[in-house]
Each structure stands twice: as structure tokens, then as C-alpha cells.
Design a protein that fits this description.
elongated; 4 strands; 4-stranded antiparallel sheet; alpha+beta
Length: 68
């Protein structure tokens, strides 16, 4: 099972890891990455609207043992 993670680093601030709340699990990495990329785009838009300068962003999916 896969879960979404988005990492965003803004200028002058520590990097922050975001996870879905509540956490959702996906059966395939491809399905998870499609969701992660959409979430990343939404978060980046929000941060930029608030005036943050983005140094780094990464959409990723991590595995866990749930359902395995």
C-alpha cells in the first residue's frame, strides 16, 4: 500500500512534509503518484499566493505495511 507525501521547502524556512489527513492508502504507486502530484500543485499554489518563495518541492509516495 502507498501513501501520499509532499515535501515543500520555502526560502528562509525549514522543509515541511505534508501527508493526507486522514491518511489514504493506494494500491499502486502510479495511482498514488497521480494524487501526490495534484496535491503538490495545490499546495504550491497556496504557498505562492501567500508570498512564499519555493526552493524545493517533491511529490512522493511511501510504502507501509498496512494491508500487506
Amino acid at each position: 500500500m502507498w501513501k501520499v507525501m509532499v515535501i515543500i521547502c520555502t526560502l528562509g524556512n525549514p522543509c515541511t512534509v505534508f501527508e493526507q489527513d486522514p491518511v489514504m492508502y493506494y494500491k499502486t504507486e502510479a495511482e498514488c503518484m497521480a494524487v501526490a502530484q495534484k496535491k503538490e500543485a495545490l499546495l504550491l499554489g497556496s504557498f505562492m499566493d501567500l508570498g512564499y518563495i519555493i526552493e524545493l518541492s517533491e511529490a512522493r509516495c511511501d510504502t507501509n505495511s498496512k494491508g500487506a
